[in-house]
Amino acid sequence: MERIVLVMVLFALPFASPKASSITSTLAKTPSFFVTDQREEISPEDLPKKVVQAVLDSEETNGRVVSKVFKVTESDGTVHYEIKFGTEEESLIKKYDEKGKEITD
Fold first, then answer.
1. Number of helices and strands (H, E) in the chain?
2. Residue 70 CB burial class (10 angstroms; 0-12, 13-18, ≥19)
3. CA gap 41, 60 in Å, rounded
4. Whole-angstrom Cα distance, residue 97 to residue 102?
């Protein structure tokens, strides 16, 4: 009985590797829309001047404490900035493009 199982395993091995290589080649051809955005935490001082001006010009955000800032580079190369204002309990998150225009989802 053990010999039959061993023979079956040895017979199946050559058929297993082409499947593995086809999976690998399929993953290599995965469309770019599955690529995640790159999100990098930056200092508020590193924000573009137009974004800073947009924050200062808005009654909703002017005077609020900035707690975190992220520069997000999307898979197509476009960049936007996510700014978190306030603390966990009373936080507000806004997104802006490089020209300071607010992005609403």
1. 2, 5
2. middle
3. 23
4. 7
Structurally, at CATH architecture level, domain 32-103 sits in Roll (3.10)
Quote the DSSP letter at residue 57.
H
Sign of CA dihedral 18, 21, 27, 30: negative
Tens-of-pLDDT digits for all 105 residues of the chain? 454 444 444 455 455 545 444 444 444 454 545 556 899 999 999 999 999 999 999 999 999 999 999 999 999 999 999 999 998 788 999 999 999 999 997
DSSP E strand stretches across 1-105:
38-42, 66-73, 79-85, 92-97, 102-103
Domain ranges of the chain: 1-30, 32-103
Provide the token pair at 45.
């001082």
CB 95 within 8 A of CB 103: yes
For the entire predicted model, the pTM comes to 0.65
